Amino acid sequence: MTTIRQLIQTSPTKANELLTALAGTSNNAVKTRERLLEDLKSELELLAKLEEEHLFPVLRKHKETKDLVTAALDDNNQTRKLLAELEQMPKSSEEFAPKLAELRKVFQQSVRDERKDLLPAVLKAVSDEEAQAIVAKIEDGKAEVEEAQRAEAEQRRAEQRHEREQAEKLLAEQNEAEERERKTREAARRTADEVVRTTEVAAESTRKVAQSAAETVQRAATAPLSTGSLFFDVMFGMWGVPSGRSVARPGNAAASRIQQSSHDEEVIPLAEETLIVGKHTVNSGTTTVRRYVVEVPTEQQVTLYDEKVVVERRKPVTDAATGEALTEFTVEMVETSEVPLVAKGVKVREEVVVRRERTKRVETVRDTIRRDEVEISNVNERSGTRRAALAYSRR
């Protein structure tokens, strides 16, 4: 069973170990300092709380120990003040180590005062029953706090485990979405290729139709003015000559000039070629956009921390043996080093849009056409030959 002497002598052990570990850190070990300072604050606050709740009320009842409570409370308040200053101070500051040394000095002086002055007074003034009751209450308080800390640690581990599961689930969903997007892009690419092939086939078909139409127009334009076909004569405006009238044909032009007409009126059609312009699509160039993958070097800085075990020898606070002595005892402390973990994700950097834009231009087509003209000769036996020109107006 723990006695009040053992309780007062062994209670500061963990706090001293945390102070030693914290003093051995460098200005670069920010995360380690934050963690150790948090543990130290919890330990010192627990010691002060248990003393103030269970030990000091009993000591105030005895005249021999009443004055010692005030000094102990002052030490606790000074410790809280220094802890608050360290907590607000940047952990990489040059002032951190001196302030920590001040806290360590105040705490160790308080421990020495308790062992030198407070403990003898307690043993003299407090009965064994009261001392045992104080020890029981303090140990019960420690057990409750440790249980709460274990529950809190377990809750944190559960939350971290849940966060990891959520992160893994999110990563799986992201990979699945990327796979769906890849398949969608592949399907869109295949569809685009099919559209391009269909467009090329349609363009070739249109080109052949246009070429055939152009050849038909060319044949029609170079055909004789009278083809003998009712359809083409009507199409080119060469139909409508009254039946039974004498019309000159290209084959017997000389005979028509000397043919005598017995009608009161003759109609001579004057034909003219018309320029028929068609159009067809030709390939004026091909634009190819090819996506390919290149590898470029990149770098990113990451802050890593190393934890090394520091072993030092120092003079004990007191020469009294505490805990087990003259027995074999082994302590193992693991050194840790952080290493970078690299993963890669994919995101869309930019988009390249390939499309056709239609523009309009006006082009002038120049060629020569043929048309009929007329020459009129009037033969008069008395006045000789006289030539007149027929006025012609184009529509």
From TrEMBL:
Record organism: Methylobacterium nodulans (strain LMG 21967 / CNCM I-2342 / ORS 2060)
Alphabetical list of Gene3D superfamilies matching this protein: nmb1532 protein domain like
Keywords attached to this entry: Coiled coil
InterPro entries the UniProt entry points to: DUF2382, Hemerythrin-like
UniProt keyword annotation of Coiled coil present: yes
Domain of life, source organism: Bacteria
UniProt domain Hemerythrin-like: residue ranges: 18-121
Protein name (Swiss-Prot/TrEMBL): DUF2382 domain-containing protein
Region (Disordered): 146-195
Coiled coil: 30-89
Domain (DUF2382): residue spans on this chain: 268-376
The keyword Coiled coil belongs to this UniProt entry's keyword annotation: yes
